[in-house]
Amino acid sequence: MATIRFQALRETLNRKPVEIHEDERRSETFGRNVFNTSVMRQFLTKEAYQSVVDANISGKKIDRTIADHISTGMKEWAIAKGATHYTHWFQPLTGSTAEKHDAFFETIGDGLAIEKFGGGALVQQEPDASSFPNGGIRNTFEARGYTAWDPTSPAFIYGTTLCIPSVFVSYKGDALDYKTPLLRALQSVDHAATAVAKYFDKNVTKVQATLGWEQEYFLIDSALAASRPDIQLAGRTLLGHSPAKGQQLDDHYFGSIPSRVLSYMRDLEKECMLLGVPVKTRHNEVAPNQFELAPIFEEANLAVDHNSLLMDVMNRVAERHNFVVLFHEKPFAGINGSGKHNNWSLSTDTGTNLLSPGSTPMKNLQFLTFFINTIKAVHDNEELLRATIASASNDHRLGANEAPPAIISTFIGSQLTEVLDELEKVTDGKLSPQEKTDIKLNVVGKIPEILLDNTDRNRTSSFAFTGNKFEFRAVGSTANCAQPMTVLNAIVAKQLIDFKKEVDELIKNDKMKKDDAIFNVLREYIKKSRDIRFEGDGYGEAWEKEAEKRGLSNNKTTPQALKAKISDKTISLFEELAVMNRVEIEARHEIELEEYAMHIQIESRILGDIARNHVIPTAIRYQNILIKNVRGLKDIYGDNFKTYSKEQLQIIEDISLHIEKINSGITDMIEARKVANKLEDAEKRAFAYCDDVKPYFDTIRYHCDKLELLIDDEIWPLTKYRELLFTR
Ligand code: ADP
Ligand code: MG
């Protein structure tokens, strides 16, 4: 009965690290399979090259005839590198990437064939789109959706396919993917931030959002993973007793990387180099078999693409190493889960990081402007930020007694707190020359140029300032970064637009000097956004109480959190910035609610199946062994048998009790599912799954885990936590 488990263990123990050869320097292989600037110079006409560059810098549309030139150049390059197919590579709302390969190959009659790839095929493709989630945007009358080339993210070759990063929109142009709203948000933050940056430097003409994500993940041997139906189907364990040793000793974090894992990482990094994904850091994470990988930050759209691509590549490379990657936010109860910290900043085309303090008071005022505006944006939109990282799997992290809480707050460190406290005292109205000198010398001037090494770290904050960037730490490890990046950049854009308006009004109406106006507006922002700043322990209970007093949201479940995504405030924000229209917003909301309900439904079925098909039969089997034993004792000792079988009888009873609880729990859970499934309204159904179905998970699991401890290890069918986490 437990044969799969033992077979899997044997297989795992016999594995050897895959040998990895690296003959070339990484700097040489970097970007080899990317249609980047230097390749474009080589394969494109001057005119075609310039039009891609212009599209990149100013978003200028690429002319159709030019597109023909570009596609020809791209095809020549791709074929020379062994590619046979091309695909529009896009990110539908399923959460993974999508591709439909077409061959370059085409027949031209007379039994002849050529390789062809026209501008039309580069610019647009029409995947059979009806099976992607669309939240009712595409009704049957206009079932078509199409993908369109995003020239701001370079094409690349993966395997033998030329991949063209694309957006995915409905026939009417409504967004059906993650990238479209992201590009719109990035454009609005560019405009808004450029206008504000011009207060400090007239030469700025473009501001880019930058993103450096950190991807956490678990690696489990593929044989062990296959021995567990829950890992196979849900990507996490739905039951399993805690091992005697977990992560208490902190002996995994930053420890030496296990050799099989190191081979995997090197292989993965090789692929990343070819694809131009600038991965830099790798290490063991806190939990056993948990690891992390981080790249050098990039322009946000490219970084988002690279993270989506990486997750796909991670899965594929894992196959070669007999590993399964668990991206789930909480694959194992009782030990740390995984996140995907999003490090974010804004940077100008003059080479300035706007969230980095400078060497002069003016540079520091620029820093403070962007710093305080970001905090204000987070303050005003904390509930929407929380909503943007909501998912059934991230609910296990946020607010679940670990990792960032479901409360959004910013941490800025004691030094900057002091600076903001001082700025709060700035005079209302025009500043006297004395006060200005004073501020410049003693407040703004005191911000050290390199804060990076001076900032305190607070690992319990959901949105921490870390010296020259903010780190949105609450993002889940399975998330597509596009979502949090869309919202973050949009709220900052909106905030900067408002800021500029207020400053300009003070300059015009109150005849203030620019500096005075900026100080005045910032002072009010500091006061108004005080409540979002928290320097203490974000995991503590005290903070939950304090946050409630401050009126901050604490939405612990996805259905609850998602409400903020369709509030009037959100809709007017997105519509004002042209990031998403009402139809797109409501469609997405519907998709997310449906996805949530399906997620819990699937987990609930898996748990029911495992408990009934694996756990209960095993328990009965063991109980029968005990019964036989008791009978034997009775044969030998007659009426005196109870003296010698007291413990066995107790275990027999305990087993019956656990079986009873498990079985009735499953029956009730199925009833709750039936009720939930009958609800037409997606939100009501999501709440029903959350409030009425999910609570059974814990009780069913509790009794299964108790049985795991009682039953003979030899017949227990499910690979145990100890084995999943410590076998390599
Ligand atoms: P840690 O936060 O683990 O101490 P680092 O501060 O070195 O590590 O950086 C973590 C991540 O932040 C990296 O992926 C890095 O590329 C990214 N990062 C650094 N600077 C910026 C920036 N200006 N904008 C966006 N991301 C950045
Ligand atoms: Mg970090």
UniProtKB/TrEMBL annotation:
Gene3D superfamilies membership: 1.20.120.1560, Glutamine synthetase/guanido kinase, catalytic domain
Domain GS beta-grasp: 84-173
GO terms for MF: glutamine synthetase activity
Biological processes per GO annotation: glutamine biosynthetic process
All residue ranges annotated as the GS catalytic domain in the record: 178-615
Family the entry assigns: Belongs to the glutamine synthetase family.
The name this protein goes by in its record: Glutamine synthetase
Source organism of the structure: Salinimicrobium marinum
